[in-house]
Specification:
The complex is a heterodimer of chains A (about 110) and B (about 110). Chain A is about 0% helix and about 55% strand. Chain A is mainly β and about 110 residues long. Chain A is globular, with a radius of gyration of 13 Å. In chain B, the strands form 2 sheets. In chain B, strands 2, 4, 5, 6, 9, 10 and 11 form a 7-stranded mixed beta sheet that branches. The termini of chain B are far apart. The chains are: A mainly beta (about 110), B mainly beta (about 110).
Chain lengths: ~110, ~110
Amino acid sequence: QKEVEQNSGPLSVPEGAIASLNCTYSDRGSQSFFWYRQYSGKSPELIMFIYSNGDKEDGRFTAQLNKASQYVSLLIRDSQPSDSATYLCAGITSGTYKYIFGTGTRLKVLA
Amino acid sequence: EPEVTQTPSHQVTQMGQEVILRCVPISNHLYFYWYRQILGQKVEFLVSFYNNEISEKSEIFDDQFSVERPDGSNFTLKIRSTKLEDSAMYFCASIPGQGYEQYFGPGTRLTVT
């Protein structure tokens, strides 16, 4: 069974701090990873995707992928109360159509 | 900016009834998906659809479920005989190519009584 694991949280950080969200995956064949933000009662909203080992930065967000350790992370710099949401990690294996989602980590940014 | 749309936003139905959930994917996208999210739980893959046929489905997607792209723009999910445990948010998503990032619609909240 291919799995994507996330700590459910909540992860609480003060406003202005760096929030670090982590995700591990079981399938070594997984090629691409995606971070989504989901507000309560709303649909997932894409934040970033990453295919290659290393870091990828987009504004306040940095995604990190380490395929040897089967580990993906998302850093949010200068966290704002509006960043408070559940963050979903998803992966897909090359040659398949099925995206596997983690349970999500609830982030609370305290003003 | 193009977006995925879904109707209705909320559907209430009685157990045993058939429901059809509708989605309009982004127009140049080729792959379409349905997901389910039971309240407080993870987003669960149901089915993927490409080139007018199912490309992959999960164990949740049993004979009670079917999908269709009836007219080149709409993408529907039918549940033939709803059960209480079908109550969930149902999300449609689309992608322009295999392995690309998915874009989700706003979801349909299905309540089975």
